[in-house]
Amino acid sequence: MSQLPHPKNNRQEVLLTLIKNGKVSIEDFPKLSGFRTRVSELVLDYGLVLNTKPIKSTNKFGRTITFAEHHLEEIHIDKAIAIYNTINNG
Question: Of 26, 4, 1, which is closest to residue 87 (Cα–Cα)?
Fold first, then answer.
């Protein structure tokens, strides 16, 4: 994978994390209030294929919580990079 330009917006930040790490969740962006919207945009507007799995964790009050972890399979990385570059140039 060649060096990608720095992200210009939140959508690109989420996508870059997916490309580099193969997965992304709200734990990667706890202060991004529109995290779920950015993931939905990537899937619905750009056709990115993600696999989502529920992750259980414990919050600061000791309660069990569940959140989504989105995975980008290796076969879809080239498409993700093309989407990233499209967003960057748009």
Answer: 4
pLDDT at 80: 97
Q: Which two tokens stand for residue 56?
A: 């259980």
- Among residues 63, 40, 60, which one has the least CA distance to residue 50? 40
Q: Are 64 and 57 in contact (CB under 8 A)?
A: yes
Instruction: For residues 15 and 2, give the distance between their C-alpha atoms in angstroms, rounded to a whole number.
Output: 15
Give pTM, 2 decimals: 0.90
3-class secondary structure for the chain?
A: CCCCCCCCCHHHHHHHHHHHHCEEECCCCCCCCCHHHHHHHHHHCCCCCCEEEEEEEECCCCCEEEEEEEECCHHHHHHHHHHHHHHHHC
Q: Give CA–CA dist 24/74, Å, rounded.
A: 14
